[in-house]
Amino acid sequence: MMLTTTEPTILRGGEWLLQPSEADAVFTPERVTDEHRLIRRTAEQFVDNEVLPKLEQLEQKDWALSRDLVKRAAGLGLLGVDVPEAYGGLGLDKVTSLVVSETLARAASFGATFGAHANLTIVPLVLFGTEAQKQKYLPGLLSGEIIGAYALSETGSGSDALGARTKATRQPDGSFLLNGEKMWITNGGFADLFVVFCKVDGDQFTALLVERGFGVKSGKEEHKTGLHGSSTTALVFQDVRVPADNVLSEVGKGHKVAFNVLNFARFKLGAMCSGGAHSAIAESAKYAAARRQFGQPIASFGAIKHKIGEMVVRTYAVESLLYRIAGLVDARIAATPHDATDGSAALAAFEEYAVEASIAKVAGSETLNYVLDENIQIHGGNGYVRDYPAERHFRDARVNRIFEGTNEINRLLIPGMLIRRAVKGDLPLIPAAKALQEELLGPPSMPAPGDVDGVLADERRAIMSFKKTALMVFGLAMQTYGAKLTDEQEVLMHMADIAIDVYSAESATLRAQAASGKNVPRAALHVDAARVFVNDAALRIDASARQALAAMVDGDTLRTMLAALRRLLKVTPINTVAARRRLADATVERAGYPLA
Ligand SMILES: Cc1cc2nc3c(=O)[nH]c(=O)nc-3n(C[C@H](O)[C@H](O)[C@H](O)COP(=O)(O)OP(=O)(O)OC[C@H]3O[C@@H](n4cnc5c(N)ncnc54)[C@H](O)[C@@H]3O)c2cc1C
Asked: 447 and 439 in contact (C-beta within 8 Å)?
């Protein structure tokens, strides 16, 4: 199998499943530049001084205020991070996009408004717009004069986005007549420009740029569980005439726009979730320090330390994988010769790392959900009432598992895309799985203790075993089901869970390894966080693998595979109680996430 120690600096998408990475080659939050820090401070000040004090007003659906805040964000350059300078943007790297998304998440409702405008309208225009479309619409979008929205979902087609029924009929002069209805559109109540997906002349899935002034009508505001400060409405198109020049990309190529934009948006959603988790950890830490029961702060109780420690561990892993992805995308763009005005290098990079973007979305949204649920629990009764923000965060965050592709759809995509790459020959997964099969049938060949040494050696060895476990399950699934694997969703979900844990565990470990090597502040806590994550990932991967294997084989074959699994996943437990206590104590002492 291909678990070697030599690897390219820039791994291709999915290659991490087959190869180790070097800690020095991976981008981490500790490697951000002064420019990144400056933009983070700018975004923080904007959120703290301009958005959070007006949250109540936003929740009362004061859309004039939303528009004004978008303009203010524009004034600070926050809308133009992903836009080339030639079009009035800042043309900055994806680490900067990540930093901005993380920070804006502190005000989730405004984060949704911002995301629909910047990530789902400006980005598709930059990536797919013609020169004339960019010249026409980007200045207004970048200044916040016009607000954007992205209209893909319909009553009958959410996950099944290509099943859209909104239709556009070509007219003799080349223009289109648009008819149909979209659902749940963020910024739907007040946006001026919509990226609308429809079927042209029957079945050609296409993206159109549709101005409100062409005749778009908004439905009433939805009564949502959370995100009350963002607008979500239906959109109605009745014989809306759209000029021929307003096709985004090409007629029949709407799926390219939709899916590529979602790759980028999923990564950014993961970033927003990581930012939300940071804020909630700070709230929990402060509350646990202040709240006294039985004569002592609740932060002194082991049960609460466990929660805070685990919140930090999971957030650490998500944050590590997000910065790793941003670094990969930036490196890939930098290595691709391209004109600064041309979005195709960014497009190709996000296509390359689409699996990783789906992992970021699922891991980010589920970590945030966990963190916010425990934040409520730490607040006790106060977590359940509106006097404290914990319940609002919980409500606001729930939708992250639903939009930008539900977590089920993203889980299907993760193994699906990996296997597609393998079949196309872009990822040598099939030969690696075959080689592993031979290795497992032969005498034990786990790495000898001397093969991996130094800091986190046990964890790095464990991760090699995780990858072999993933290969064993992927290999058996492809062999057992062939092309019918798509019908076996339960097995695919287990495969996705294993892949998510492998990527998260490796990202956390590489980061902690780098932190130790460079003596960054609190490096020992980085190591604690990575070790706890790897320890628990081993248990989760074991459970997923056992269930997947038992769904595919039985009898002696199953027994042989389970014996191989036991041999692979022989991970000695660490003292996670002590490690989580150290993490929790540091969090409470610093009144916030201790690894920032
Ligand atoms: C607050 C909010 C804002 C939104 N903003 C926007 C926006 O700006 N633009 C936009 O276009 N849309 C937006 N949406 C819509 C959102 O993207 C969809 O709700 C989402 O894609 C899921 O579609 P659905 O609601 O139709 O659920 P369904 O697709 O009906 O899914 C229901 C359940 O079935 C599962 N499921 C569906 N298909 C499969 C399958 N093949 N295999 C296994 N499980 C499956 C899903 O995972 C889910 O658990 C927003 C939604 C909300 C709630």
From this structure: no
CA–CA gap between residue 307 and residue 95 (Å, rounded): 29
Residue 121 DSSP class: I
Output the pLDDT for position 438: 87
Phi, psi (rounded to 5 degrees) for 248: -95, 125
**Closest C-alpha among 29, 537, 17, 536 to residue 271:** 29
Here the tokens at position 438 are 């031979």
What distance in angstroms lies between residue 447's CA and the mean position of ligand 1's atoms?
A: 44
- Give residue 342's pLDDT: 78
Q: How many residues would you count in the chain?
A: 596
Which of 159, 228, 404 to mutate for ligand 1's pocket (most ligand atoms within 8 Å of CB)?
A: 159
102 C-alpha to ligand 1 centroid (Å): 23
Is 536 in contact with 573 (CB distance < 8 Å)?
Answer: no
Contact 349, 11 (CB under 8 A): no
Q: Which of 396, 551, 388, 547 is nearest to 481 (CA)?
A: 551
Residue 8 has a pLDDT of 46
In angstroms, how far is CA 558 from the centroid of its own chain? Answer: 35
Residue linked to tokens 């003596």? 519
- 372 in Cβ contact with 388 (< 8 Å): no
Q: Which residue has the tokens 């296997």?
A: 419
State how far the alpha carbon of 223 is from the alpha carbons of 194, 315, 316, 412, 547, in Å. Answer: 22, 30, 34, 30, 39
Is the whole-model pTM more than 0.90?
yes
* Low-confidence stretches of the chain (pLDDT beneath 70): 1-9, 443-451
Residues 6+ apart with CB under 8 A from 104: 43, 47, 78, 110, 111, 114, 272, 275
